[in-house]
Task: structure prediction
Amino acid sequence: MKLIVGLGNPGKKYEKTRHNMGFMVADLFSDVTGIDVDKEAFNGLLGRGKFLDEDVIILKPQTFMNLSGNSVQQVIHFFKIDLEDVIVIFDDMALPPGTMRMRLNGSSGGQKGMQNIIDMLGTEEIKRIRIGIGEPEFDSIDYVLSKPLKEEQVLIDEAISRAVDALKETIKSNFQKAMSLYN
Result:
């Protein structure tokens, strides 16, 4: 069973903000796979279904970004998911807008939602897909909670689409193959 975790902040106020890239990828992946993310459970919104004969769970934690690990940990324990089958998607200020990078493991790079997941699971061995949002020219909190400029959004939409293609390839073959095709 694969667990696809899209990070973001819940509520209309945060929709389409830079900090909700993970939610945007999860939503598009949900549309493409037909797995509805509509069940409230484990401090998140959850969808469960099949894609390419693989059991898949899509999770959007609803705990706000900095506490995302709580929701992820609950789902992993309840469904007995191996950590090697978990992929976390989130925004990254260190990457230019529209850049998509996949990594097998590593530090959080300062992304507080990912750091909380690492802390809660006790390991950095977590696959992740990062969507670039660029460096802020002003306060980073205001930056991540604001909407991208139109020209940035075009690039970000392309990265979100590539991330969904990478997720499909991961389920079809594996994460390393997807990395070789989409990084």
Summary: The mean pLDDT is 95.
